[in-house]
Structure formats: structure tokens, C-alpha cells
């Protein structure tokens, strides 16, 4: 058995809760992600400026993020898939546990899920999640390969930052003073997906409130 890992307050409002999702919940979230990834309005590589594509593949529920706004229309012209209520409920449960403030979590109503797939080469550069109008926390679930998740300050993308190892089933919440923190996934560790999960690579699901 691997050693249990401790929950950590990485910065004010930024909490890492290892192994929050049971293996059964991880399996269910992965199966749902595979459904969401299918066309129409499925998973694709987002094109940034100058025709440069992101290395991750993404499907959004509720609202779709495109550089640099949220829209109701998918990249293929189809309507964005709906945000399921069970997923919003999972987000409330996660937030209540991470912050230990159930009364705060009761009003958390995420209406966006961003589902990212990382193959062994994929990375995500330093950025802020700032196209939402709401300052409600971002709730993040990780599945599959372990990654390095980097979280820095709110002013710029440079040091100081903290590197956290996110493993399959981990919960990470960033809200409050950390809601606008720059963050990144500089690398994943191919082949580290636990055996109970049938996945090559890494999937991350972030829940957000649009305020739109
Ligand atoms: O993959 C992750 O852990 C973070 C994803 C992320 O920052 C995003 O989707 O904006
Ligand atoms: Fe992000």
C-alpha cells in the first residue's frame, strides 16, 4: 500500500486533498468524460492566436472556453453539452470538504466544467482562470497519470510558486485570495495511472461558476 498523503493548504484559499475521489468515483468520472468527449460538441485541441494549438484536448460542459471568453456554442457549431446536476453536486461536496465550511459550499453552483486530456507530451502553461465573472472557487479533480501542478501568485506568472503532485483521485480547490493565482501543469508522469483505472494519460476536470 502506498503511504497516505496529507491534505495541504498550499496558499490561502488553495487546498490539496489527496485521494478525495474513491476508485469507484474515479471510474464513473472517467466513463462520463469519455461520453462528453464524443462528437458532436466533443473534445478538441483549442487553437490559440496565430494558429498555434494547445497540446491538451478539451471538452467543456455548460459554457465552452475559447480564447478568451465563454460561449454556448461548441467548436463544431453544435450547442455545448449541459452541465449535469450530479457533477455540480459533487463540486459542492468537494468544496465543503476542502474548506470545512458546509454553509459556504451550499451556495456553490458551478455551471461550467472544463475537461482536459493530457497525453504524455501535453502541458499547460502559466495562466489565470479569469474569463468567469464569478469569484467563486475553482474545484479540480484529477484522474490517471500523476502530474506536477504549479501554483504561483496573482500578479504575474513568475516565481515564487509551489509545485504540487496531483495524483489520480486528488481534489484541488483554489478560491478566495488564490482564485486568480497563476497556475500550470508543466509535466505529467506517463505510466503512473493506478491500475484500477483504464486510462493512458491524464484527465483533469475543473468546475467553475461563470457568473454569466
Ligand atoms: O489540469 C489541471 O490540473 C489544470 C487545468 C487548468 O488549469 C484549466 O483547465 O484551466
Ligand atoms: Fe486553469
TrEMBL record:
Protein name from the UniProt record: Alkylated DNA repair protein
Transmembrane spans: none
GO cellular component, one term: cytoplasm
Required cofactor(s): Fe(2+)
This protein's UniProt keywords: Dioxygenase, Iron, Metal-binding, Oxidoreductase
One GO term (biological process): oxidative RNA demethylation
Keyword Ribosomal protein on entry: no
Domain of life: Bacteria
Record-annotated Fe2OG dioxygenase domain positions: 109-211
A GO MF term: oxidative RNA demethylase activity
Cofactor note text: Binds 1 Fe(2+) ion per subunit.
Residues that, per the record, bind Fe cation: 127, 129, 183
Amino acid at each position: 500500500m502506498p503511504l497516505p498523503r496529507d491534505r495541504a493548504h498550499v496558499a490561502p484559499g488553495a487546498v490539496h486533498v489527496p485521494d478525495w475521489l474513491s476508485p469507484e468515483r474515479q471510474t464513473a468520472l472517467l466513463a462520463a468524460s469519455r461520453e462528453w468527449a464524443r462528437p458532436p460538441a466533443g473534445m478538441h485541441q483549442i487553437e490559440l492566436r496565430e494558429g498555434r494549438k494547445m497540446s491538451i484536448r478539451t471538452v467543456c460542459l455548460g459554457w465552452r472556453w475559447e480564447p478568451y471568453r465563454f460561449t454556448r456554442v461548441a467548436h463544431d457549431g453544435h450547442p455545448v453539452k449541459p452541465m449535469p446536476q450530479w457533477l455540480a453536486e459533487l463540486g459542492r461536496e468537494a468544496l465543503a470538504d476542502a474548506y470545512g465550511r458546509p454553509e459556504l459550499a451550499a451556495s456553490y453552483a458551478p455551471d461550467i466544467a472544463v475537461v482536459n486530456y493530457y497525453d504524455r507530451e501535453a502541458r499547460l502553461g502559466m495562466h489565470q482562470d479569469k474569463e468567469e465573472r464569478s469569484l467563486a472557487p475553482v474545484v479540480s479533480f484529477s484522474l490517471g497519470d500523476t502530474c506536477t501542478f504549479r501554483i504561483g501568485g496573482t500578479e504575474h506568472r513568475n516565481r515564487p510558486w509551489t509545485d504540487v503532485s496531483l495524483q489520480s483521485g486528488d481534489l484541488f480547490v483554489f478560491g478566495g485570495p488564490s482564485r486568480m493565482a497563476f497556475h500550470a501543469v508543466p509535466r505529467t508522469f506517463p505510466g503512473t495511472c493506478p491500475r484500477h483505472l483504464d486510462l493512458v494519460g491524464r484527465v483533469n476536470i475543473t468546475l467553475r461558476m461563470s457568473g454569466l
